[in-house]
Amino acid sequence: MKSALRALRIGRVLLRYRLDDLLDDTPAERWLKLMRPFVPRASPQVASLSRGERLRLALQELGPIFVKFGQILSTRRDLVPPDIAEELTHLQDRVAPFDGVRARDIVQQALGRDVAAAYESFDTTPLASASIAQVHAATLHGGREVVVKVLRPEIKRQIAADVALLNGVAAIVERTHPAADKIRPREIVAEIETTLAAELDLQREAGNASVLRRNWIDSPDLYVPEVIWSHTAERAMTMERVRGIPSDDIAALDAAGIDRKALAAKGVRVFYQQVFRDNFFHADAHAGNIWVDATRKQNPRFIALDFGIMGQLSSEDQYYLAENFMAIFNRDYRRIAELHVQAGWMPAHIRIDELEAAARAVCEPYFTRPLSEISLAEVLVKLFRTAQRYELTLQPQLILLQKTLLNIEGVGRQLDPEIDIWAVAKPVLEKILVERYSPQRLAGEFRKRLPEMITRAPDVPRLLHAWLQQQVEGKHELSMRSRDLAELTRIAHAAQKRVVAAVLGSGLLIVAAVLYALEAGGPQLLGVPVSTWVAGIGGAWALLAAWPRR
Question: Could you give the residue numbers annotated as active site?
């Protein structure tokens, strides 16, 4: 019943903000029309807004979890139209705090000991509050200042219920929307669920922070607060307290005498080092999570916060992405096309010359501008978007990297509007590539794998002899798997399920009609027997499930 009421409320909000136009020309449109007379019309101010703005306002009204969904969705620019993705980046994850005494109790349960024993003091008034957790100031015994991040009570249950509801909505959209293959609603919900699951484990976030701190220990460019592991668990995380200025507070940075030009260049360098040197990058690098150390005026550094979303690339994607960047720097469009195919991002049958021409059409307009006005993030996003017409397939981590690069360049240009991203990034990337693929690095990788190679070496003669014997005796077997056969099997199973659902739905509707005609007894709702309602709703749901996917 709760899920039904929640679904009804979501439907009402979507209609109020005129978001039903996203389902125009689909069977779902007819069902939404039935609800329209019962939903207040949108105000002229709302009606005049863009679809992205209306969606943002609707998510904010639906509550904090949906705000989080929207924020995650904004990172998937491969799945969401650019105008909607851009608007969703403005969603603010600020919600009313929950009771501080309750937060103290959660910390106590998570740590398995009394708060007074763990901390010298614990402030029940939160410093900040978001949809997943809130932060409290505290002091360890000995006087060290820390902050404690605490998960909201019942947040796991709430997210599970909302995700289940979204999966149901995604299934309906997949069956009814003509562009379902491009929207990929189930994939969107799965991505949201995965990201939220990671943010619900604060011990995992603490591990992310610890690794990032180790990568940048004693660095003059980036500071990562220390995790207090003795006071950290799945539902509560304790870190050293840091103070700084948000990176978008230009007035405060100028008042503190911070060299913004030097800071902007550092931000770009830090990003490329995280991605290509460490292969571990902060993927939620907006101004709220990136502060500036105000005590270092001439040699400023950033302070990183909130480590719930981190990114990593496979070694292959890392290599091909770096080479793509260098090809863009050098305007080598043929190389860009070849790399897209070699990386496996595109099928082998794609013509290189066509892809080269498409890359040239994307990149050349940018090179007519001054280098200080060129955004590498924009170029990369447009390249990938163009390549989608040629059957581009990208992993979510690459899309996450796109979003992070857009954020970093945005922070850099806010700090220094005249920054030449290319002049800063190219030497950093060249140096990293030289070091990464140097003979010394390769020798180190060989030494690392040498024990494994020695362990397996005795088996090589036996395996070679067995293979040769199979060839001589004609016993070599070739194992093949056909994707086409697997797809046909899947389609056949799906068709079978739809037929069963259609038969069941038709039968239930007939039963409902018979019960209504015979005036079946028992309790009634709006003058109609409840049994008739149950049979009718069940029949309609089964027919909806049987509706063919487009």
Answer: 284
